[in-house]
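Exam review. A common question shows you a sequence with its C-alpha cells and asks you to describe the fold in words. Practice with the pair below. Do the first one on your own.
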Amino acid sequence: MQPATPSPQFHIAFYKFATVAAPDDLAASLRQLTAGLLGSILVAEEGINGVLAGSAEALDAFEAAVTAAGYVGGIFTGMQFKRSGCKTAPFGRMKVHRKDEIVALGVIGVTGVDTARRGGIDVTPEQWRALLADDSVVVIDNRNSFEFRLGRFKSAIDPQVDNFRDFSAYIAANAPAWQAAGKRVAMYCTGGIRCEKTSAWMQDAGIDVYQLEGGILNYFQSMPDAAHDWEGECFVFDNRIALDTRLEETGTTAEQVYDDPADAWRLARARRLDGAGDA
C-alpha cells in the first residue's frame, strides 16, 4: 500500500481589534481551537493578531469557529484572513500568548479598538496605485528598516526606525514639514495592523493619513502586476523568510536578511519563531 500523500500546507494571517472582556479565557479557548495547527496568536483586551499554518481543511475549520456568531459574542465575525501556500513549513510549534497589546505602538493610552472611528482613510489596492504616482503624496513604510531594505514600494520613504515603537517619534518630527508643503501622507505595512493602530494616533494629532487596506499582502493578492510598483521581496516573520509579489517563497535566508551585526538578536529570535509577526 502506498503511503498517504501529505495534505498541502497553507499559511493564514489575521487580526481584528475588538473589545475582549476576558482575554485569558479567550486565550485558553484558542489553544483548543488550534490543536493540530502551528503558529502563534497574540491575545489582548484590544483583540487578536495571529499567523497559523496547516492543511486547508484544518484552517477552514479554525476560521469558521473563530468567526462564528456564537463565539465570544461574535466579536470576530467578519475578520479577514490572508492565505498563501507553503513550500517550507512556516512554524515549528503552536503558541497562544496573552499580551497587553496585540501590536505595541509605544504611546500611552492608544488602543486599536476604536480605530474604525478615529483611524485613517482606508484605500483599496487600486486607489493605492494612484497615490504612489502622485507627487503630492508622501509614502511612508511603517515597518522596520531591515524589512524596507529587503523590499518596498518604489516611491516609499524609510523612517529608519529599528522598532515599531520608534515610528511615532519619526512622524511627530516630520509631519509639520509635510503639512507646510501641502503634502498628503500615506503609509503601509505588511498586513495592515500597524497602520490601523498608528493612524488613530495620527488622526488625534491632526495628521490625516491614507492607509493601504490589508497591507502589502493584500496588494500582492489583489494586483496581478504588483511587481510594477514593488521592488525586492516582502519579509514575513516565519520560516519562509520572504515572499515575492506572487506570494511565493523566495530563496532568501534569515542570515541574508539579518546581515547587520546589530540585528543578531533578531536572527536569534527568528530561529526561535517566538511570537506572532505583523499579520
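Now try the second one, then compare your answer with the model answer below.
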Amino acid sequence: MGFLSYAMRRAVERFILLLGLMIFLWFFVEALPQLFGINPAEWYIPFGMLGKSQEFYQSIIRSLTIEFGFNKPLYVQFIKYIYNLLTFNLGYDWMQHEPVVEEIMRALPYTVVLTVPPLIFQTILAILLGSYSALNRGKWIDHLISNYLIIQYNIPGFFIAAIFWVLFAVALKTAPLSAVAVIKWNNIGSILSAYWLPWIIQTLIFGFPNRGILMRNTMEDILDSDFIKYERLAGLREQLIRNHAIRNSLIPIITRTAIDLAFILGGIYILEYIFGIPGMGLLGVTAALQLNIPLLVGSFYVLTLYALVILYINDLIYPLIDPRIKLR
C-alpha cells in the first residue's frame, strides 16, 4: 500500500473517531435529557435570568427551544447538530453575549503560544539528555541525569509555578503579574515579556522528565538489541551505530509528544490561572464552573478536533522515521 493510500485510510479513521465523539456528546447533552422528559433549553439559560418571573422564564425556555430546535424530532436535531459542528457554527453564549466560536478563537492563540514552543524545546532537550544518559549508562553522568529526571518528575508542577511567579513576578518584578495586561500580538517584545517565565516552567517541568526517562530507557534497550550487536560485529562506525539507536528510540518519544501536544491545550489551566493568560484551559474551567453548556460543547469540539489532527499528523510521521512500519 502506498503512502497516499495509507494517509487517506488514516484520515477516514480519524474522521470516524471524531464523528463518534460528536455523537457521544450529542447523546448525553441533548438526546438523553429529552428521553427522560427534560428540555435541554433549561441548561442554556444564563444565571442572570434565573431570578426572573416564571412567565419570563418560560418565554426564554420557549425561545431557546425554537432556536436550538428542541421542539423537532431527535433525528432532525442530530442532523442539525452535526452540520453546525462541521461548519463551526458552535452556537451563542448567552452569558457573554457573543458567538462561542469568537470566544474560542480569541482564547486559542494565547494557549498555542504558551504550549507549543516549550513542547518543542523540552522534546529536543529530553532526546539529547536521555540519549546521552543511555550512551553513558552506569557512569556518574548517567546517575546524575536519571536522578534529576526522576526528582523533577515527582515535583508538583503547580507548586513550582506558584513559587516562580512569587519570586520573579512579585519579588523581583522581572515578569508581569498578569500576562494579558502586557501581551500585544504585533509586538514581539511584549510576547516574550509575558511568556518567558511560563515557557521556562513548562520546558523544565510539564512533560519533560517523563520524556527524558522514556528516551533513556528505550535507547538502553535498543543498545542491547541484536541488530546493534550485529552492526558492531560488522565493523560499522560507532557514530553510525549510535545514530541508528537514536532513530529507533524516537518512536515512543514522538508518540508521547504527540499525545501531550494533542491534550495540553485543555490541561494547562494552572499556568494560565497563575500568570493571567486567558487561554483555552482557563476558558474551559470557567465554562464548567458556570455550567455554560454552549461554551463547554464548543470548547470540547475544538479541542477534540485539534487532538485528532495532531494524532493524524503523528500517524503520518511514523513511517518516515521507522521504515520497518508497514503502510497498512
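Model answer, second protein: The CA atoms of residues 6 and 14 lie 12 Å apart. The chain has two domains: 3-87, 101-321. Full marks require stating both points clearly.
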